[in-house]
């Protein structure tokens, strides 16, 4: 059965089940609110496709990191294997810095890479103390400004209220977890206390140790033919704290701070041996680290005046650092095989501070209005640099290089959105508008000019943009809602896209600036049908998005007449289009018959397609038709079991496009992976969980991991683990 037929059958099944279900036969769960949507409306009343993964689901699936938590989200894939960890998140075929990642409203560092020795990914957080993970799919710049052209991934941390239940003054949790896929050990805990009715706080800590994935590679040799992962040791620490002061019921002040540090050591055995007939490496080692330090002050208030009923303001500061060190020992062939050592240290850092205020106002009348409006300002200092040291036959040389100038980025945004509810008609309209001003000032120094040459032309960048959205909902009944949404997105060029510079006369190429670079834009429409009657819930949506001015970095534009070198730069590409259908559904059988108490199922399906409109070539980042089907059984919250089948159809060669002649790999085959998990709670608060993953021991690789790898050997090396076992023990008090 082809993907479209399978999806059609699933949709019809959902429709038929919905028609036969009766309202009121089961208790509806408490509504879920989405912080990234900037309004208090429950998830069921939002006019776009949003996926929320809560803490219970993450624990049930023995998730360790963000990549795990995103695994069952339809339309979302990721690149997270190899030396550099989580480097990319893809939503509906849109990846990289076109997806905005937030942690409690603060933007996580953009992904940045240059050459073979620098790749600053987006692994700046773990899941300890995370209450829920939200994914808004499609353009959402009307609420979140630049970079939200493809969607938003938002992590929301716990507050003391999540640990202090039923008026308790003290509470918390401790846990430990084992993951057989990478011999990972994860442990930590959190403590919350409320010494006074006006004061409370918490502190959380976690530690994680992991090794390389245990996959089906098989060929444990040194050199390019290696098909097992390179040996790796990964250690991370995370500590977060929060203090809250509530002088009365209308005001809450909170001060929060945290540090996340990850260090990863890799023995890159796959790079040993001959390298481009220049070097012959006998040792190749990588030492990489990432750290995020953050602090924020927030005030939530209820004021009830003509301009606002409630709102908040918060100010923040954060610094995110990424360092990659590489040491290569061997011989230099063109120097008579003289002994050589090469050392590369690449650093990338962003310091970000800002303030945001949001106000909510409800105006009752024949047409009820729910206003959300506010402003945001951020100031970022970005810098990167590289240190090189080479020793050949005992003679050493070193240099400091900077391939993009230090940059100062100021962003200012003003937004407003109004939910108009037309009495008892069930119709709501949600218009929204945001204005953004973006300014990038380059600050070149001596190191930059030494790297790029005096002929390089540095460009500053200014851009302002209006982003519009119009959402609509129609409540067919208490349980069924139709929704539609038109939304726009934009992304201003990053500092390295604006001013990336490099000259290599020995190999005859250079990178130059493009002062006429335009911002990326998107316009999308989505229609959907959502229902939840306590027995069946589903969200079926179809979408179409057109993208303009995609920025392609490191594009060959011919030979530079000034220096005779082949010139590479960033350019805008013509428009592209992406469209698809998604379905998320579940059945709670408890409402059908008492003997089925505790039995439930969940389903997620995603089909996406698209093309570059200028030449009708496929968009390689689009994942093939994929999904998951799960069945869970829970007995009075004392014990339970669950099973999930995750699958993807093949990615055909005709759906892959590459302009790189070195890229010999094309599509991949399909796969189906079966997992089983279970838990047991012998006493209140103590929960033991275990799971067997990839039970059938399938050899496979996801398209998110595969499409950037240019040969089949690399795809085997970074393929998924075979059968593995995981377990956790948690005590909540």
What are the SSEs and their pairings?
Blueprint: H1 3-20, E1 50-54, H2 55-60, H3 66-69, E2 76-79, E3 88-91, E4 99-103, E5 106-107, E6 112-113, E7 119-120, E8 130-137, H4 141-144, E9 151-157, E10 170-179, E11 184-196, E12 199-211, E13 232-248, E14 251-267, E15 273-275, E16 279-302, E17 310-332, E18 338-363, E19 367-392, E20 395-401, E21 406-422, E22 427-443, H5 446-452, E23 461-475, E24 480-491, H6 495-499, E25 502-504, E26 509-511, E27 520-532, E28 536-548, E29 550-559, E30 566-573, E31 576-588, E32 599-612, E33 626-635, E34 639-648, E35 671-680, E36 686-693, H7 703-706, H8 712-717, E37 724-732
Parallel strand pairs: 4-9, 26-30
Antiparallel strand pairs: 1-8, 2-3, 4-5, 6-7, 8-9, 10-11, 10-37, 11-12, 12-13, 13-14, 14-16, 15-16, 16-17, 17-18, 18-19, 19-20, 19-21, 21-22, 22-23, 23-24, 24-27, 25-26, 27-28, 28-31, 29-30, 31-32, 32-33, 33-34, 34-35, 35-36, 36-37
Helix count, DSSP H or I runs of 4 or more residues: 8
Largest sheet: 22 strands, antiparallel, barrel
Q: Give the overall shape.
A: globular
Report the count of strand segments: 37
Proportion of residues in β-strands: over 45%
Bin the helical content. Answer: under 10%
| Euclidean distance between termini CA atoms | 50 Å
* Multimeric status of the protein: single chain
* Average pLDDT figure: 89
Rg, rounded, reads 26 Å
Instruction: Give start-end ranges of low-pLDDT stretches.
Output: 1-30
* Estimated structural class: mainly beta
């Amino acid at each position: 059965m082809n993907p479209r037929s399978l999806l059609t059958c699933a949709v019809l099944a959902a429709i038929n089940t919905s028609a036969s279900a009766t309202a009121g036969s089961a208790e509806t769960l408490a509504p879920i609110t989405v912080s990234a949507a900037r309004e208090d409306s429950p998830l069921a009343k939002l006019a776009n496709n949003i996926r929320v993964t809560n803490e219970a689901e993450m624990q049930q699936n023995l998730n360790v990191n963000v990549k795990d938590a995103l695994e069952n989200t339809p339309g979302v894939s990721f690149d997270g294997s190899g030396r550099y960890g989580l480097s990319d998140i893809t939503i509906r075929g849109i990846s990289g810095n076109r997806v905005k990642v937030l942690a409690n409203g603060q933007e996580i560092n953009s992904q940045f890479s240059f050459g073979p020795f620098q790749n600053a990914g987006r692994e700046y957080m773990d899941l300890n103390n995370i209450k829920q993970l939200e994914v808004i799919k499609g353009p959402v710049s009307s609420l979140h400004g630049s970079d939200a052209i493809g969607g938003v991934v938002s992590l929301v941390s716990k507050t003391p209220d999540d640990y202090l239940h039923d008026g308790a003054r003290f509470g918390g949790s401790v846990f430990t977890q084992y993951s057989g896929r990478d011999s990972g050990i994860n442990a930590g805990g959190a403590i919350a206390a409320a010494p006074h009715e006006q004061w409370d706080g918490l502190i959380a800590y976690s530690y994680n140790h992991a090794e390389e994935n245990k996959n089906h590679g098989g060929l444990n040799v040194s050199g390019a033919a290696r098909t097992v992962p390179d040996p790796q040791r990964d250690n991370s620490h995370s500590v977060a704290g929060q203090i809250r002061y509530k002088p009365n019921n209308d005001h809450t002040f909170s001060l929060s701070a945290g540090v996340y540090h990850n260090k990863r050591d890799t023995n890159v055995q796959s790079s040993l041996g001959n390298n481009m007939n220049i070097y012959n490496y006998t040792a190749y080692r990588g030492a990489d680290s990432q750290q995020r330090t953050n602090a924020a002050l927030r005030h939530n208030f209820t004021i009830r005046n003509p301009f606002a009923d409630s709102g908040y303001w918060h100010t923040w500061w954060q610094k995110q650092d990424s360092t990659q060190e590489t040491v290569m020992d061997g011989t230099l062939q063109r120097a008579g095989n003289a002994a050589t050592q090469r050392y590369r240290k690449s650093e990338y850092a962003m310091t970000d501070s800002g303030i945001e205020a949001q106000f909510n106002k409800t105006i009752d009348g024949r047409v009820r209005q729910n206003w959300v409006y506010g402003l945001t300002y951020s100031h970022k200092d970005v810098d990167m640099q590289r240190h090189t040291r080479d020793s050949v036959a005992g003679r050493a040389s070193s240099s400091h290089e900077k391939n993009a100038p230090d940059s100062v980025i100021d962003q200012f945004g003003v937004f407003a959105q109004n939910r108009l509810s037309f009495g008892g008609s069930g119709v709501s309209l949600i218009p929204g508008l945001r204005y953004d001003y973006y300014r990038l000032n380059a600050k070149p120094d001596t190191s930059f000019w030494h790297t790029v040459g005096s002929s390089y032309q540095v460009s500053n960048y200014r851009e302002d943009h209006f982003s519009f959205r119009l959402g609509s909902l129609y409540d067919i009944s208490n349980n069924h809602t139709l929704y539609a949404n038109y939304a726009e997105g934009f992304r201003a060029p990053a500092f390295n896209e604006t001013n990336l510079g490099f000259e290599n006369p020995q190999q005859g190429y250079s990178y130059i600036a493009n002062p006429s670079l335009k911002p990326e834009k998107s316009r999308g429409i989505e229609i959907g049908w959502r229902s939840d009657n306590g027995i069946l819930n589903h969200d079926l949506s179809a979408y179409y998005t057109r993208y303009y001015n995609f920025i392609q970095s490191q594009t060959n534009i011919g030979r530079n007449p000034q220096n005779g070198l082949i010139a590479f730069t960033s350019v805008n590409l013509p428009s592209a289009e992406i469209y698809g259908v998604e379905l998320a559904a579940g059945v709670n059988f408890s409402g059908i018959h008492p003997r089925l108490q505790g039995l439930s199922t969940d389903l997620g399906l995603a089909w996406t397609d698209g093309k570059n409109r200028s030449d009708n070539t496929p968009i390689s980042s689009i994942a093939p038709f994929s999904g998951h089907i799960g069945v869970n059984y829970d007995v009075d919250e004392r014990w339970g079991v669950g099973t999930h089948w995750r699958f993807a159809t093949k990615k055909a060669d005709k759906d892959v496009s590459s302009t790189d002649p070195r890229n010999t790999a094309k599509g991949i085959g399909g796969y189906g992976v079966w997992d089983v998990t279970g838990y047991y709670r012998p006493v209140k608060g103590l929960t033991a969980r275990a799971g067997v993953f990839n039970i059938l021991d399938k050899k496979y690789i996801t398209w998110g991991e595969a499409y950037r790898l240019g040969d089949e050997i690399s795809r085997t090396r970074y393929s998924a683990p075979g059968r593995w076992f995981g377990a956790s023990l948690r005590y909540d008090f």
